[in-house]
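Still learning. Any example?
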Amino acid sequence: MAKKKLTYIDLFAGCGGLSLGLEAAGFSLELAVEKSDMAAETFYHNFIQRIADDSAWKQYSSEEKSIEDQAKSKLIVKELSKLLECEGLLKDLRKKNIDLIAGGPPCQGFSMAGRRNPKDSRNQLPWQFLDLVEAIAPKAVLIENVAGMRQNFTKHEEEAPFEQLRIALSQIGQGYFVQPVLLNAKHYGVPQHRPRVMLLGIRKDIGKILGIKVSETTWKSEYDEAPHFTFPQRPTLAPKTTHCGKKALSVKDAIWDLTENTQSKRAPSEYVKTLREYDEVLKGVTSKNKIPNHTYRKHADIIKTRFRLHQYLRDNDISSRILRITAKSGANLEAKTKMVKEFLSGAKFPAKLPDGYILAKNVDELAKMIIALSTKKHSQRPLNWELPSPTIVSLPDDFVHPSEPRTMTVREMARIQSFPDAFEFRAKETTGSMRRRFEVPQYTQVGNAVPPKLAEAVGKVLFEALSKYSKKIESLSLEEAV
């Protein structure tokens, strides 16, 4: 008898980082829902079928394409509310006995008290997620979001959105045993400091059979480094870490071989080689030689110099705040120069970068350069080869390459997120400021994604629990038959 696959539905699927990890953990896609045609294009290309004809994709993702037809291909390119309005699809999904519903609904405005408040659109999306859970009654649920969702609404004397969501999930339908966790991606083999909160739920009838124990208190992956008195042992649904402490991977592990200098041939790291295991999940992977989405952005000379200045300040332990302070200061040139020189009191000259590039020969030249290149942009910073990356975000200009005077490519950011090179990002590469409100280009797709390796670690915990349940049910059935 063929082994039954464990199925999942991915809501707010984005480009597919969560799905990639769940597939690697053993789950099989039943349906994905993503309203952005740009992010959905990447999902379709990697999980459904390689897109050879752009016009065919435009037809598939158009408003005219029925939700039923899209569901047959396992990807709905519409808002989740459209699925909830389709009673026929809901009935079919209920019959399929779905194992897992997963996703990251935006929770900024979530409130238990405002479930039916149509004026707060932010509040509706988590409830739509829960409405689908209630309609389909999956065996397990996974909800992911940024760590800030744990903060209480002190101004309104309300509990944190994620705590309210935990309570709501525990009461939906038959009810779920819910374990809140705060996981840092760097503890799971991702070369990035990326804390995320998750709710892992097992339906109560299943949890009772398995003896699942959960805590209302959030378990943190850092407890594997330093045990916490609240958790003398790991909760049943808390994924075991693999890369704590000195095992944490670095930016060098992720992108050392992706140098702009074509004369320098560097071998991929062991980390990059492990990402190739995801290729088996992806559709239509043919050539492993070409690296897609690795286009260098063009910068003006003055911008390149600023990038080099950022790198110099980093390497010499000089705070980059000086660039913002001088930009905002209303002081005259003489006062600014004095202030900058105080910051540079410990600097050695000539101001040289590791590649031999000389920024300035003396403190006067460097002070003049800092004042000329000062900027109010507060988030821009160069990555460090030897450390995990800060949290990857959706804006390409926020990070500077560790040693080259440029921003990161889509592929480099994807590597840091733990996407394999065979995973191709579709749609435009980036977009303008106002269009960011509704467009989801490649950089945004990468920044918004759940790192596949983190998703895989969480998926394995749920997969093992559900597989154990299936075996117990089979065993009980055999005993009854005898």
Remarks:
- The chain has two domains: 6-250+451-481, 296-408.
